[in-house]
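Retro notes, item 3 of 5
We never archived the inputs for the farnesyl diphosphate complex last cycle. Fixing that now. Sequence and ligand:
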Amino acid sequence: MTEAPLTHLGIIMDGNGRWARSRGLRRIEGHRAAERSIHDAVEYCGEAGVKYLTLYAFSTENWKRPKTEVSFIMALLRSFIKRNIDSLHSNRVKVMATGRLDDLPQGPLKELRAAMKRTENNDGLSLILALSYGGRAELADAVVKIARRVVQGDMQPDDIDEGTIASDLYLPDVPDPEMIIRTSGERRLSNFLLWESAYSELYFTEVLWPDFRKEHLQEAFEDFRRRKRRFGNVDPD
Ligand code: FPP
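Structure as it came back at the time:
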């Protein structure tokens, strides 16, 4: 396998509902089928040497979905961790999470925290689950932390710069993603990693998430290798 061209990949796993509906199934069956794609992505990224894989599993806006669907996704999250934690751990995967985790129900939250604790010293792929995550919420939470320090007299407003904000995000030690993939043909970020994606390459594919396999990831990496990343600079002569 060729080496990964990037350190941090973000994926917006979209299209589960449409995948299920197109088969005459209930939407939740699409979420169930998503597990195979998650498995493939984790395995491929691990083998290729990607260091961080962030999966947008549940957004701050997803709480607005019907109660039954939300409960199903939360139960799936819990059972996904239970079923996969041994194999993730033996593959040296470090389980991490980003988002307003305290919003999660007790069951999945307990399972998640136990998985994070058990795998915290692993040196393989860091699998970051974005749960009750919103880019705007993350920025708002960072602003609150900074405002508290100002009120306490620990810093002055003029001291606030980009570095201050970056260091108050949920996972300040994780580098920005070089690429974000969104499946299912939608072309937007939907509140995913708003600050961190400032210079991310965006990759959109028509493939629905439950159909997304290693070869699709390989195509995305090949596309990434062809991108010219200038970060506001110009190409050297
Ligand atoms: C997007 O498809 C998917 C979601 C909002 C939820 C994703 C949840 C999982 C993959 C399962 C839980 C997570 C883990 C880590 C096991 P959609 O429902 O918006 O699809 P649609 O756009 O076709 O309706």
